[in-house]
């Protein structure tokens, strides 16, 4: 007979552990104390350089521009009370609908959660949709962001440049204020913090102190682990020799990998605002190595990382002592009177200007020219035009006059702001809030390896291209000669990348009409770097070719044919049609009229800003 007290207990309600709670209060408290200590180191790293140099803590110029621009928007918005009231009513109506939907979700029979916007990695964690509180925060943020962007479009009386700036700065502020950037409003960060008892924040604050020190008082967000890469060790390792150098550049000739080579050599002009090894990353990604392996004699300009001594070096100097001198040397070494030319980004802009100068002076050494993500018409130059008005350029010139150059970090910051969610805030969250070091990525190591820009050259470039668009108008002058790109009859292979934020594809497409000769326009997938650095072996992305690049990009694209994989083989077939397929015995660097100075990649590229 079973006694009553021996009977099994009736099942009670299952107790589940709350999803967000501190695991170990004592460990959490210790880590909060350590966090405060590391925070003090961050503050000291910010203050110390300014105290040492007797400088006051200065607010970055971008904040001043943003405040001024958005202040104008608010002033004009409030000057129309009826429109302002309608906009506020629209916002509050949106909030009311969101709150009503949230209450329904928290009750029985709640509707399915609204999915995150496609492609927005900030809200990928499932809790953003499944947890009503975080769902509310996410949707309220998106609602407010869209409302602010709409207000900018609706405000009357703004000049187009000011409206463009307002759009840009509104996106910067909304990106910064995303709930995904804060521990208490990001479910993934909150779980990480509670599960590790705050250890992630301690690690992150330690990394922040290191990055502020590396930035001499400014936060220089690391995008990759710099210890994994070294130029000349596992980056820029294609064999070659520096065979010439002057104040502005070293010229590298690469060692052939074939017994015979095509007669016409190739001269590559990279951007002077970055380092050339974007085209010679790891061997698997190296365009330079691939070109050498196809049987081309390859020369590459490696620009100097300039200091104050080169402050007066001009755009014309970069043309004469850079491109034209490289052509001189390549011609003497190979014995050829022509060369294929490649220009990348602003290197392509400089090369296009040089082609105009060559056309005016009867210089016919260009067998063909390839422009990679290059603008020559800056009418649709994208968000970088936000930084190019008379007031900002004048202020920048004043800064450059004091130093003799523009710090490379300034340009890198501007580029990062074009894709703030991907290139700033994702790393801020990963590094400093999750406390995780970024992964090793060669492309991002290159991206952080910035260079300085001489004052005279950079001022000329900003004023003649971004501010006045003189190159496309035929108003730019070099060496006393007016540059008219319509006189350039050289065949041109003009490559744009579909997701480019630096040289937008419609801007590159528009530039096709600036030249007087045949232009083959090619559009490739991905962005400014990945779309260009896309070796055939990886079989990634795609490219489109079509008819003559006339009209607008959308019309051209509608009729273009898509091809899978890399554009590199298409380019090779094209240049061989321009320069012929005749071959000669392979040329050994340093064996000709110019002796080897040092091994590639040379010493100029190793100078860090």
From TrEMBL:
Chain spans, region Disordered: 1-21
Cellular component terms (Gene Ontology):
cytoplasm
Q: Which InterPro entries did the record assign? A: AB_hydrolase_1, AB_hydrolase_fold, PHA/PHB_synthase, PHA_synth_I, PhaC_N
Q: Where is the signal peptide?
A: none
Q: Which GO terms describe its biological process?
A: poly-hydroxybutyrate biosynthetic process
Domain (Poly-beta-hydroxybutyrate polymerase N-terminal) ranges: 120-291
Keyword annotations = Acyltransferase, Cytoplasm, Transferase
Q: Where's the AB hydrolase-1 domain?
A: 316-528
Keyword NADP annotated: no
Q: Where found?
A: Cytoplasm
Give the chief site where it resides. cytoplasm
- UniProt GO molecular function: acyltransferase activity
Name this protein carries in UniProt: Polyhydroxyalkanoic acid synthase
Which organism does this record belong to?
A: Lutibaculum baratangense AMV1
